[in-house]
Design goal:
mainly beta; Elongation Factor Tu (Ef-tu), domain 3; 2 domains; 3 helices; elongated; disordered N terminus; GTP_EFTU_D3 domain-containing protein
């Protein structure tokens, strides 16, 4: 038996209230002795990108999506955040395949009834998660690759200031790209700052696409840094990079 397996199985289960307590203790012990081991999806903080929602009069709103990480049980408190909105609620019911469930884990597609949540407080693209763990911003740094014509991409280059829609997770918003060189040619990579018209839920190392006309993918990218949110006009009026760029501050610094 490997050292990892030995440590995991040495944890006693006697006296623990449930199997989930046993699993949490085992996971904590493994992370203590093996800090570089990737965190399994079920052990990570709860996160579910919201795909749709429907209000139930007198009970709250059901948000629908697939858990990308973590676990969720009835009665737990959750946070719904994104697009300049932020709410907390208590889960009163969980539905999987039209049947009530006590718990869901990463990979489960479900409907979550959030007590007291109004339809106006939630929209597609927001994230539901453990309170205090959802990060939102309207400015990121990313590695961007402009698809070549052979990849069904553009035939012409783009300039800094290029504006189009970015698709990531379950959200899509208008965004403006800024990069140092004059042109980005099809088939080339570049590091760019991307400014969104809304605060969107985001994580480092997330992948995204840039599409023209909402359907044609012309670029792909990966988030490399996230900056503190800035006040940006939704129409990008009075967008002065000379005054904006010095204000950028990474949330990780």
């Amino acid at each position: 038996m490997s050292r990892l397996a030995a440590i995991a199985h040495q944890i006693p289960s006697r006296g623990l209230q449930s199997q989930s307590d046993d699993e949490r203790l085992r996971g904590a012990t493994i992370r203590r002795y093996f800090p570089d081991r990737p965190i399994e999806a079920n052990d990570a903080p709860l996160l579910m990108p919201i795909a749709s929602s429907v209000q139930i009069t007198g009970r709250g709103t059901v948000v629908v999506g697939t858990l990308s990480q973590g676990r969720l049980k009835k009665g737990e408190q959750v946070q719904i955040k994104g697009f300049d909105m932020d709410s907390t609620s208590v889960v009163t019911d969980i539905q999987v395949f039209k049947k009530s469930a006590l718990q869901v884990v990463a990979g489960d597609h479900c409907g979550i009834l959030c007590r007291g949540l109004k339809a106006s407080q939630v929209r597609r693209g927001m994230w539901l998660g453990k309170p205090g763990t959802i990060l939102t911003s309207n400015v990121i740094k990313a590695n961007v690759y402009l698809l070549s014509p052979e990849e069904d991409g553009r035939k012409t280059a783009i300039r800094s200031g290029y504006t189009e829609r970015v698709f990531c997770s379950t959200w899509d918003v208008s965004a403006k790209l800024h990069f140092k060189q004059e042109l980005l040619m099809p088939g080339e990579h570049i590091e760019a700052e991307i400014f969104f018209v809304n605060d969107v839920p985001i994580k480092k190392n997330m992948a995204f696409t840039i599409r023209e006309g909402r359907t044609r993918t012309v670029a792909r990218g990966v988030v490399t840094d996230i900056f503190e949110p800035l006040a940006i006009d939704p129409a990008f009026r009075d967008f002065n990079l000379q005054t904006i760029l010095p204000k950028l501050k990474s949330i990780y610094s």
